[in-house]
Design goal:
10 helices; 8-stranded mixed beta sheet
């Protein structure tokens, strides 16, 4: 059984700890000692005060990095240099250079480096991937997607609102999920146009991000919008093909029951045939993603996002930031 060390004992680190099926948590590190102690005590794990000490433990086989963005690269690189397998949370850093550092460290080590884009493992997306691969909607023409929440009191004072820690706003928080899913389901995409805009929250990062992407051959497009002024949590991801459309609606909990909606074009066109499948069960994406990580360590290919996938998403986000800055100059 694999032995796990978790760096970062906040919301995501706690979720990761709860879904270590086939492994056991042996050590936890967090800059807030009380938080580390609380998570460690729930699983009978040890507490380390420094991430360097955690990654050097001989009883740690793999490391999960669930810290704020600015701390991901230092922790990940240290773990890889210590010979550990590493799963880092999206977006894998504050910028392109953070991810490049990790890729370079992984190439020099024996460790596996993967990135936690858990939305790939939601049941509706797993089925959507099968349907697209099977050709159920013909060739993909374009994607349209929205992902938004409404923030909360004090949101502008959280670490996500500090660009030195987060690296950016809503495009790096939820927008990268939309980019990753677009590339995973629709093939390669590159930046065409983007805008980062702060409408409501008094913070130096964007509360809304808008992207237009295109395939390298110009035949496919994606239009994406990530927002933290949605007020009512929303997730809607549509894949348009030549013979139909697949829509993933909701992600469970406050986003509504997850559904896969299949709109199949009739030969005579007109209103399509519609099949709707609901997934009301508890979110298993974290457990399935961790299982995929264990499979990757054992040499089996899975749907788990790679560091290159994270790099591609980050390049698109930073292109949007650069265009926004040049337009505002």
């Amino acid at each position: 059984m694999k032995r796990v060390g978790i760096i970062g004992a906040g919301l995501i680190g706690t979720k990761r700890a709860a879904h270590l099926e086939g492994a056991t948590l042996v050590a936890v590190c967090d800059q807030v000692s009380e938080r580390a102690q609380r998570l460690a005590s729930a699983y009978g794990a040890a507490v380390e005060t420094r991430f360097e000490t955690l990654v050097s433990r001989k009883d740690v086989d793999l490391v999960i990095v669930a810290t704020p963005n600015s701390s991901i690269a230092p922790c990940s690189v240290a773990a890889l240099e210590a010979g550990k397998d590493v799963l880092v949370e999206k977006p894998a850093g504050c910028g392109v250079s953070d991810i490049q550092r990790q890729i370079a460290a992984a190439l020099k080590s024996d460790g596996v480096l993967k990135v936690g884009y858990n939305h790939r493992f939601h049941p509706a997306f797993q089925k959507a991937k099968q349907m697209v691969t099977r050709g159920d909607i013909g060739s993909v023409m374009y994607i349209r997607a929205r992902y938004g929440h409404g923030g909360r009191l004090g949101y502008e004072n959280e670490w996500r609102a500090d660009p030195k820690i987060s690296g950016g706003g809503e495009l790096l928080d939820q927008g990268v999920h939309l980019i990753d899913l677009s590339r995973w389901l629709g093939g390669e995409f590159e930046f065409e146009w983007g805008k980062a805009k702060t409408f409501f929250w008094k913070m130096p990062v964007e509360d809304n991000g808008f992207l237009a992407l295109r395939s390298p051959d110009g035949q496919r497009s994606a239009w994406l919008h990530a927002s933290c002024t949605e007020w009512k949590n929303l997730f809607d991801f549509e894949i348009f093909g030549e013979t139909g459309k697949i829509e993933v609606w909701g992600l469970g909990r406050s986003y509504g029951i997850e559904e896969l909606r299949y709109y199949r074009m009739r030969p005579e066109m007109g209103p399509p045939e519609v099949d709707i499948q609901s997934f009301p069960e508890d979110d298993r994406s974290w457990a399935l993603e961790f299982k995929a990580f264990l499979d990757e360590i054992d040499g089996r290919a899975t749907d788990l996002a790679s560091a290159i996938d994270a790099l591609k998403a980050m390049e698109i986000v930073q292109a949007a930031y650069k265009l926004t800055t040049s337009c505002n100059a």
